[in-house]
Amino acid sequence: MTSPANWVVRFRQMTYLVYPLLLIGVIAAAIFFKTLIFGIYEIPTGSMEKTLVPGDVVWVNNMTYGPRLPYSPYEISWVNVLVWWIQGRNADMTKHWWNYNRLNGYSEPKHGDVVVFNHPKKKDTYVKRLMALPGDTLQIVEGSIFINGELHPAAAKALFYSKISFQNEQFANFLHDSLRLQTWRKNKSGFTAVPLKVAGTE
To answer: 115 Cβ partners below 8 Å, 6+ apart?
Structure first.
């Protein structure tokens, strides 16, 4: 009678079968963890400076609030390539194959959490700070945030921007140099450092 250990040895010697199964197992595990357990994202804009700055790569725990299940195979890494190859050039990668569904997490959203979410009408992924929850009253008064009538403390590394203009270019440049001011221009990708430009001058 052949013992179970001998069957294991024989199976391991079948390299033509073991190696493909091992490769498939590794890929399946990677897809599972990438889809349900964690996500890796790069910060695209400067809206979270200096807590997070553009180019930072962050690891996101999907299990905190519960992972959102994919809308289609195109949201699953590596599987999307296979499906696209099968469907060809006319593949509709924006089509929802399945309804919205989210598994239960081990925590609830809290004020001040840094969260990652998908824009409801775009493909963009946003990284923002959660300020208010359903049922809260949110007010922004002169740059200060009030939640349910109470002042919410600013983040420890938050940056604040002011809009200023000068009529005297020499005085403006003096303040800029002596105070080491940084000037910024807001664009689609966030704030970009630019040289000082005085209103009414070139």
So the answer is: 65, 109, 127, 128, 129, 130
